[in-house]
Amino acid sequence: AASPATCPQAIYSCLLLITGTLSDCVDRARLIAVGVCLWSLLTAASGFANSYVGLLVPRVFVGVGESVLAPCSLSLIPELFPPSLLAFASGCYLSAPHVGSGVAHILAGLTGDTLGWHASFWMMGGAGLLMGMLVPFLVRDPKPQTATPSLREAARKLGSSLRNSVNVVRMSPAIYYCIGGKFALGFTIGCHAFVQPWLTTERGFSREAADLAHGTLMLVIGVFSTPLVGFVADKFSQRTGRPKISLVAVQVGVFKLPVALCFFCLADPRSSSFWVLYGCYVALQSVSAPVIATLQQLSPPTLRGSIISLALLALYLPGMGMGNLVAGLIADHLSAA
Question: Which helix (H) or strand (E) is 240 found in, with range?
Answer without folding.
Answer: helix 207-240
